[in-house]
Structures are given as C-alpha cells and as structure tokens.
Write a structure and sequence with these properties.
single chain, mainly alpha, Amino acid/polyamine transporter I, 2 domains, four-stranded antiparallel β-sheet, 24 helices, 4 strands, 68% helix, cell membrane, transmembrane helix, BCCT family transporter, BCCT_CS, transport
Length: 663
C-alpha cells in the first residue's frame, strides 16, 4: 500500500484538529447550552477586562506610528537589495480582500443603520445620530482595526524575510525566547493560530452563505432560504476556493483579488451616482474631519461615565477589537506572505491608510445613503430591519434605480470576497500546519477546504455558528497580550538590525597600513585573557604615555599619569583651572562572546564565553573603543587626535558654559 505523503507537523496539526473538532461537535450537539456557557465567559471578559483590548490596540497604533516616522522605517522586509514580488495594485487588492472584504458587504448598510437606531443614542436628534453612526463605523473599521493586522503582518514578514525564520507566529517571539521558539511555547502559539484561523473562516463562511442565499431569494433565483441551498452554495464556493488555493498566490488569489476590487469599485460608483450624491460627498468630507477630531477620544474612551452606552460599547467596540484580534493570525500571516521586499514605512502606510480610506468611502456611500433613504424615502422601513442584516443591503437596493443589477453585482462580489478570504485562509492554515513547508501535496489543501465546508454546514444546520464565534472572541484576550510581546520583540530586533548596519570599521583599524599585517592577523584571531591585556597595558600603553608626558613638558604642558586597579587601567591627565581636564585612559574590559561563536569550528578559537580587551575612556564620558591592535606610536597618535579635538572644543566661545570647570 502506498504511503500518503504529508508535510504536516504533527505537533501542531493533531492538537489543532482535536480542539477544532471538539469545539465544533460540542457546538453542534448542544448549541444552546454551549452558547450560554460561552456567553457568560465572554461577558465577564468584555465587562471586566475590556481595558486590556483598549490599551493593547492603543499600543499597536502608537507603535506602528512610531516605526513609520523613525529611522527603522527604511528597513526592508527582506535583504537590502530585495524587490517586491507583486505590483502595488495587486498587493493592496490581496491584503484588502483577505482583511475584511466580506465584512464590508455584510455590514456596510447594517452597521451604520444599527448605530443610527440604537437606544444608546436615542436621545439625540437625527443629525447627531447620523453623525455618530458614521463616526463609530469609521472607528471600528479604520486605522485601529488595520493596526492589529499590520502589527502581526509586519512582525511575521520581518522575522521571516529579514531573519530568515519560518513564516510562523512563533518566529515573532524569537528575540525574547531565542531557541525556545521551537519548543512547547512556539507549538502552542502555532496551535492557537491554526484554530483561530479555522474558526474565523468557518463563521465567515456560515454568515456569508446566509446573506448570499437571502439575496438570491429576493432576486427569485432560488425559491427560499433553506439548508439545502446553503449546502449547494458552500460546495460551490469552497470548491472555487480550493482551486484558487492550489493555483497559488500568483495565479488564483491575485487574479480574484484584482477582479473583485475592480467590481467593488464599480458597485461603489453605481450606488454613489444612483443615490443622494451631493449628500454622500458632503457627509464623507465631514465624516473624515469628525474622525480626525475625535481620534484620541475614541481611542481611549471606555464609556465609564456614560452608563447608558456601556452595553453598546461592549457589544460593538470591544466585540470588534476581539474579532479583529482573533483574525490577526490569519490576515497577518497572509499579508506577510505577499509583502517581501517592501520597506517597513511602505508596509505600514499601505496597510493602515489605503484600506482605511477605501473603507471610509465605502461605508459612507452605503451607510449614509441608507440612513438618508430611511429618513427621506423609506419612512423608517430600513431601520426596522436591523435585526435582519442578511437582507438589509438588498432591501436598500430596492429604493435605488437598477435594483436588480445592484443586487446581482453585490452577490457576485460577496461570493468572490468569500472565495478570496477562504482560499487565502486555506493557504494560511496549510502554512501553519506544515510550519511553512515549501512544497506540500495538493491533498492537504483539499483536506482543509473540505473540513472547512463540512464543519460550517454542520454548525449552520445545528445553529452552532454563534457558539463558534463567541469562542473565537474569547481566545482574542490572551492573543492581545501575545501581540504586545510581538511589538516588544520586533523593536528589540530592529534596534539590533539598525546597529548592525550602522556599524563602521573598528576605530583601531583606521591608521593601519600593510606593514604589520601578519602580527595584526594573529591579534584578530586571538581572544585575549586578562593577563594578556595587562601585559599590553604594561608594554605598549604605559611607554606611550611616558613619552607623551615628556613631550608635553617640553611644550610647557604639565601632564600626569595614573595607574589604577580593579579594573586595571592607566590614564594620562592634563589638569586645567578654567575648563574641564583632558583625560585619555585605557582599561581592561571584559566582553561576553556569543555561545554559537564559541562552538563554531571555523571561527577564531575561544576557550570560554568571556574575553578581555583594552578599551579607551575619556574625561567627557564619551564611549571608548578597543585599542588592542594599536602599536605604541599609534597610541601616541590617537591621544594627540583627541587632544586636538579637545583644544578645538574648549577654544570656541559658544562652548564656554558646556566645558567650563564648575569647581
């Protein structure tokens, strides 16, 4: 019997599959009791620990903003000479389609209308309710949401393409955990990422299918919204997703994403010009200003002083933060996969600003049009449908010309949006399960797609999708803390990265000629003991200082030499009354050598991880450097260079306050 080939990592895939199947079966067998139990946990988290989400997302936004304008923004996600793999349009199309494409179709009318009709804002007038509806929709789908995706995607892309680690969430903690990322902690993070991705795609598939079925019913293409037609729809869409995933990023996913973004823009323009155009454009302009003015208030607002809005805050803002965080492993990994060769600044600017701007335009065109239509034409009929978000968009289209054309186009876009989310999700799940194996058999891609379809239909039929969604929201809490650690690890790695490329030649190599190259090679490959440094100070440094003292005396400059212990050091000092003293010293400095360096055969021999070298120090506190390669005459020359610098500084009138001797 032929053995089935697989690239799956059993330590990641088996625990993930057991947990996925366990949760899905439990949600299908006892949907009501499971949902009730999970709801209690979710409400406790949202009510008592909502500040964790608020602070975590604030940190993400501030951190990405800092990186954008810092010197680290020029670092590439890959080698310094790497080039982007995809065109800018294709890149933005794919990250947008994977990020929240289907959510825009599902909530573009439903969310603004729900905020508009919410009892939490019922006391305000029409204008304020409409303005608040747009503002909070912008808030939930704007920079804060994309900062979540951006942080995970940036960390993954950086460590995968710059450090050449596996494209895996565990790699994002490498600066903190080092080799332990390959152990149980790394495996746990990957298991979490795989389960979170599967749950997110499954719930999206379930809710998306219901919306498509509802739209087809309204168009008269299918007679009813039923489980039979939902099975047919799931089978078609998952089959397309599997074909697209097998084709790879460069073919199926890219082509579908490009086509869908073009179709979405076409639908957007139709609604813009068929609806209240002047009102839409004016409200978009005002909405952008309102969002900017309230950006920081929204970021930190916990509604603690507005008790009537607290339930709304938990069920919308905190739920959204948890939902975006739960999707971050999937979306972040996919964004990372397509972002090799971009600079950090380019990545952050594109991921945060471009999708946010498109979302704002989209939500204004659909949401504000729906509110205007509800007030001026529908007489509240749309507002009465907030409990039926599956049908709300299609009902809104009924109040516009060419309603059937709009509905057909919307259904096509929802289907493609789902396929682009599902195919990238299948690709990501296989990537996580195989720990980024390069050449996986096609049956694995088919396996994840079929499992996705079967479990989504099982939960859809049993009414367990809500339980799965709540479970996903709960798991977002620990992952928000892990994401903060991603930011810490990324900053630590970027500092090391920048220092590495900023490193110049050793100061001690500047005066070199080829005269003593054999002796210098011996010094380079020899790591000194403490006794060797002491001998260098005794045989080279002290004679150099003695000669300098004599020459200074001949030029009417009095210098003193001091030799001190613990650590051994020697210094030449020229005292002054009006300005600070000039001091040049050399001390015995200990240095830790990396463990891998000690073990490497084809590197200089090191007996242990501690070595010593002679290091300079100065009276003004500047950082010194290694002088073990200097000859006696080169040491004399180096002291004179610093003395010349010292005279140049103290002779400037502008420096009087800085260099004056306070004593």
């Amino acid at each position: 019997m032929r053995k089935l080939k697989t690239t799956m990592d059993l330590g990641v895939s088996i625990p993930s599959l057991l947990f996925i199947l366990g949760v899905c079966v439990l949600s299908a067998i006892a949907p009501e009791s499971t949902e009730k139990a999970l709801t209690v946990i979710k409400e406790f988290v949202f009510v008592n620990l909502n500040w964790v989400y608020v602070w975590a997302i604030t940190i993400f936004v501030v951190f990405l903003g800092f990186l954008t304008f810092s010197k680290y923004g020029n670092i590439k996600l890959g080698a310094n000479d790497s080039k982007p793999e995809h065109s800018f349009f294709s890149w933005v199309s794919m990250l947008f389609a994977a990020g929240m494409g289907i959510g825009l179709m599902y909530f573009s009318v439903a969310e603004p209308m729900t905020h508009y009709t919410s009892e939490a804002f019922a006391e305000t007038n029409y204008e304020n309710r409409a303005r608040n509806a747009q503002l909070y929709t912008f808030f939930h789908y704007g920079i804060h949401a994309w900062a979540i995706y951006g942080l995970v995607g940036l960390a993954l892309a950086y460590f995968a393409f710059r450090y050449k680690l596996p494209l895996s969430l565990r790699s994002c903690l490498y600066p903190l955990l080092k080799d332990r990322v390959t152990g149980k902690w790394g495996t746990t993070i990957d298991v979490f990422a795989l389960c979170s991705t599967f749950f997110g795609i499954t719930t999206t598939l379930g809710f998306g299918v219901v919306q498509i079925n509802s739209g087809l019913e309204r168009l008269g293409i299918v007679p009813e919204t039923s489980f039979l037609y939902q099975c047919i729809l799931v089978s078609i869409m998952v089959s397309l997703s599997i074909i697209s995933a097998i084709s790879g990023v460069d073919k199926g996913i890219k082509l579908l994403s490009n086509a869908n973004l073009i179709a979405a823009i076409f639908l957007l323009l139709l609604v813009l010009f068929l609806g209240p155009t002047n009102y839409i454009i004016a409200s978009f302009t005002g909405g952008i200003g309102n969002y900017i003015n309230n950006f920081f208030n929204l970021t930190f607002d916990t509604h603690i002083y507005e008790e009537q809005t607290l339930p709304w805050f938990y069920n919308w803002t905190i739920l959204y933060w948890a939902w975006w965080i739960s999707w971050a492993p999937f979306v972040g990994l996919f964004i990372a996969k397509i972002s090799r060769g971009r600079t950090i600044r380019e990545f952050i600017a594109a991921v945060l600003l471009l999708p946010t701007l498109f979302v704002f335009i989209w939500m204004t065109v659909f949401g504000n049009s729906a509110i205007w239509t509800d007030v001026h034409i529908a007489s509240g009929a749309l507002g009465a449908m907030v409990s039926d978000p599956d049908s709300m968009m299609f009902e809104f289209f009924n109040y516009l010309p060419w309603s059937n054309v709009l509905s057909v186009l919307a259904i096509v876009i929802v289907i493609i949006f789902f396929v682009t989310s599902a195919d990238s999700g299948i690709l990501v799940m296989n990537t996580i399960a195989t720990r980024n194996a390069k050449h996986s058999p096609k049956w694995q891609t088919i396996f994840w797609g079929v499992l996705l379809a079967l479990l989504a239909l099982m939960l859809l039929n049993a009414g367990g999708l809500q339980s799965l969604q709540i479970m996903t929201l709960i798991t977002a809490l620990p992952f928000s803390v892990i994401m903060v650690l991603f930011a810490v690890a990324l900053l630590k790695a970027l500092i090391i990265d920048q220092n590495y490329y900023d490193s110049q030649f050793s100061v001690t190599t500047i005066p070199w000629s080829g005269e003593f190259w054999k002796d210098r090679l011996k010094k380079i490959v020899r790591f000194n003991t403490q006794d060797a440094v002491h001998q260098y100070i005794q045989n080279e440094v002290q004679p150099a200082f003695n000669e300098l003292k004599e020459e200074f005396a001949k030029n009417n400059i009095h210098a003193t030499i001091k030799k001190l212990e613990n650590p051994l050091r020697i210094e030449i000092d020229i005292a002054h009354d009006a300005v600070d003293d000039f001091l040049y010293g050399v001390k015995c400095q200990r240095k830790q050598v990396a463990e891998f360096f000690v073990k490497e055969d084809n590197l200089p021999d090191v007996e242990n991880a501690k070595t010593y070298y002679p290091k300079t120090y100065f009276g003004d506190g500047r950082d010194g450097y290694d002088v073990k390669y200097f000859t006696k005459n080169e040491l004399i020359s180096d002291v004179l260079k610093h003395y010349d610098r010292f005279l140049g500084i103290v002779s400037k009138e502008d420096n009087e306050l800085f260099v004056s001797n306070n004593e």
